[in-house]
Amino acid sequence: MATWSADEVEVLARAVTRAPSVHSTQPWELKLADRRAEIAERPEFALGHHDPDGRDRLISCGAALANLWLAVRALGWRARLETEAIPPWTGAVTALRREPPTAADLHLYSAIARRHSHRHAFASTRVAEDRLATVIATAGDGVRVRVVAEDELLAVAAILERAAKIIQGEAGFHAELAWREYAFVDREPGRAGAPWAGLVRVGSRIPDAVTLAARLENEVILVLCTENDRRADHVRTGLVMQRIWLSAVDNGLVASVLTQPLHVRETREDLAEKLALPVLPRLIMRLGHPAGPVRPRGDAPNAGQPIGVDHG
Questions:
Q1: What is the CATH number of the domain that holds 81?
Q2: CB atoms inside a 10 Å sphere around CB 183
Q3: Strands 280-288 and 36-41
Q4: Per its UniProt record, what InterPro entries does this chain match (predicted)?
Q5: Within 10 Å of residue 64's Cβ, how many Cβ atoms?
Q6: Angle at CA 122, nearest 5°, toward 107 and 26?
Q7: Domain boundary pick from 114, 139, 159
């Protein structure tokens, strides 16, 4: 049976390594056999305090799977994507037969190299409704996308403020990050700190709900939700997250992802109540126009930027 060529292996591997992952851990392994490419979870990258149930690890694997599918399509193969429920497997892409990629496939594939996490303020220019509709049209696979309305921002900001204060007091969480330090330096004086940036540190300056809500007015807040809390649901969340992110980049937008607040049970419950969500919130995405020049991905301080805190 035919196997992947050396050039194809390089393309697949590069696409996977450019996927966002929790604290840049890249908690997956790419396995190739015949014309099949599989993503396996690597539980040895567990983060017991930040990600005790491994949800972010599986979301990371889902993002890698999304990139893998696009790479197979870009190589000119009709691709079948499957998600796996039995550990350590999370999903696979099989090349079925030769088929040219569509223009949409190539647009999203090219966005892989340009995607990064935007940890600064967004421009005051609102995202046009038709552009937002195009971006979130890439959702599916059992994952619902909820756009936070303007009159809901203050309630969401208050929930994020409470979550940040709880996380800031968790010594075990901060000790765990010491071995995997991710340095965020906000170039805007006085703007550093989560939930504005995403990752709460001991010394983070946490804005009050009113201040944060005012900042959020310049961006689009999406909440990705799933009906169940199974492995496959988290993998699919990562798939949809990455598709939306790449579509945003292709449409001239920037984005970042927050999952850290949702590790606080009260945050998940409060968010579901305030937004009248019939399903469980899994992650929060921020979308908008950049306020300044977009940094080329090659300038990023870390090769595999994070998702679980402020995915990048």
A1: 3.40.109.10
A2: 7
A3: unpaired
A4: Nitroreductase-like, Nitroreductase/BluB
A5: 30
A6: 55
A7: 114
Q: Among all chains, which residue has been given the structure tokens 């983070």?
A: 204
pLDDT attached to residue 295: 62
* φ/ψ bin of 6: left (φ > 0), alpha (ψ from -120 to 50), beta (otherwise): alpha
Mean pLDDT across the stretch 167-196? 42
Maximum separation of any 2 CA atoms in the chain, in Å: 61
Give the range of the structural domain holding residue 37, as residue numbers without chain letter: 6-114
Residue given tokens 């599918």 in the structure block: 69
Instruction: Look up the pTM and report it.
Output: 0.85
pLDDT digits (tens, 9 = 90+) for 96-149: 999 999 999 999 999 999 999 998 889 999 999 999 999 999 887 789 999 999
Encoded tokens for 289: 């126009």
Question: Do the Cβ atoms of 258 and 287 come closer than 8 Å?
Answer: no
Max avg pLDDT among 178-192, 200-214, 224-238 = 224-238
Q: Tokens at residue 102, please?
A: 């569509």
Q: Which residue has the tokens 């998940």?
A: 268
Q: Is the peptide bond before 88 cis (omega within 30 degrees of 0)?
A: yes
Taking the C-alpha atoms of residue 225 and residue 33, their distance in angstroms, rounded to an integer, is 33
